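Revision sheet: C-alpha cells.
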Amino acid sequence: FNWEAVNSRDRTKLAKYFSQHADQTVREIACDPLGLWDRGDLLERFLADPCTGVRKSAAYNLRRVTPDTAFASSLWNCFADPNCTGSRAKETLQSYVVHAPKDGLEDRLADIALNDRRISRVETAVSILEDINAHSHMNALLSLLGRPPLINWQIHCDLVAYCVRQEMSVPHFADLSEVDDLDLQESLAEASPFSRKPILGGGLLAI
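Predicted:
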C-alpha cells in the first residue's frame, strides 16, 4: 500500500486508529506508516507495547522521524532493558544513534563494544563506530581480537575486515591464524598483505 499517498486528514485518523487497535499485528504493521508520517510520538508510545514485535518495529521506525533527544532517552531506556537482545537490540541502538546527542556518543558505543557480553549489541556498536568514522575508538576495539569469541567469530571477522579497509596490521594475527574457522581464515588471508611481524598473545589458543 502506498502510505505516502494518504492525505494529511486521513493520516491523522489512521494514526489514531492504529494507536488504539487491539490487534498486535496491526500495531506492528502500523509502525511503518507512522514512521513515514513522522509520528514519533506514537512510535515512542509503542516502545512500551506489551508485544515484543511492536516494540521492535517501533524502535526500527523511529530512525525515520525528525531527530529528537527525547526519543534518544526513550530508546536508551529500552536498550538498557536486559531483555532487549538480538535483532531488537540492534534496531534500538541504531535508532538511538539517530537521535542521540553527538557529545559522548562514541564513548558510549565503545563501552558497549568493549564491555557488553551479548553479541548482537557488540556487533552493532562496532558497526556503528566504523560507519561514523570513529577511527580512534575503532583502534581501541582491536583489543577484542585478543579475546575469545562471545558465541562465534563474527566480531573478529568484522574487525579484521576493518583492518583490511584501513590497510593496517591485524593484532594477534598469529593466534588468530590457528583458529579453526573458515570465515575468519578467509578474512585473515585478505589481511595478510598488511600484516607486519605477527603479534604473539597466546590468549586465544587457550580456548
